[in-house]
Specification:
By secondary structure, the chain is of the alpha+beta class. The protein is built from four helices and six strands.
């Protein structure tokens, strides 16, 4: 055999070996390609994902066996909307009977959806109200200030550090 035909046979043999997949069939199964499931504690208040532009919140409908109509009514006036179980067919938490039959609920709580825009406005409202109350407390504290015995202006800063204590130079 001459050298040229020997080289040609060798390259043909190499390309056919490359084309054959030599991996075992066990490695191609679904179990081998998925990540192992991690254990986590059970969460009774797991809620399905909310549609875009909304958030899901649990609202109290019952406390100590007594119906809490005023809380549900107040939340509905704020803009909450109860989530129906037929909107999430894979949900296993529908209320079976009573006033809220067909609504997703667990343990005296009902799942409600709230528009994201209103949530931000509500959060800003309560943040502003809290700041006004703190300002009123500060003003009340400082109104009795005496120049002979001055009060320091209240400081509301916190600092959390981990590890070695900070050394000021």
């Amino acid at each position: 055999m001459n050298k040229k035909t020997e080289t040609k046979e060798f390259t043909e043999e190499a390309t056919t070996q490359e084309a054959v997949d030599r991996s075992s069939r066990n490695k191609e199964t679904r179990e081998a390609s998925t990540r192992p499931v991690q254990w986590r504690p059970p969460n009774k208040l797991h809620a399905p994902d909310a549609p875009d532009g909304f958030v899901h919140r649990w609202i109290r409908a019952e406390m100590l066996g007594q119906e809490d109509k005023s809380n549900v009514h107040r939340r509905m006036q704020e803009g909450y909307e109860l989530v129906r179980a037929d909107e999430y067919p894979d949900s296993d938490l529908p209320v079976a009977e009573g006033r809220y039959a067909g609504i997703i609920g667990v343990g005296g709580l009902l799942l409600a959806r709230f528009p994201e825009e209103l949530r931000k406005q509500r959060q800003q409202y309560y943040s502003d109200r809290s700041n006004q109350q703190m300002e009123a407390v500060d003003n009340d504290w400082m109104k009795d200030n005496n120049p002979l015995m001055p009060k320091d202006k209240p400081e509301r800063r916190t600092q959390v550090s981990f590890g070695q204590p900070r050394v000021d130079k």
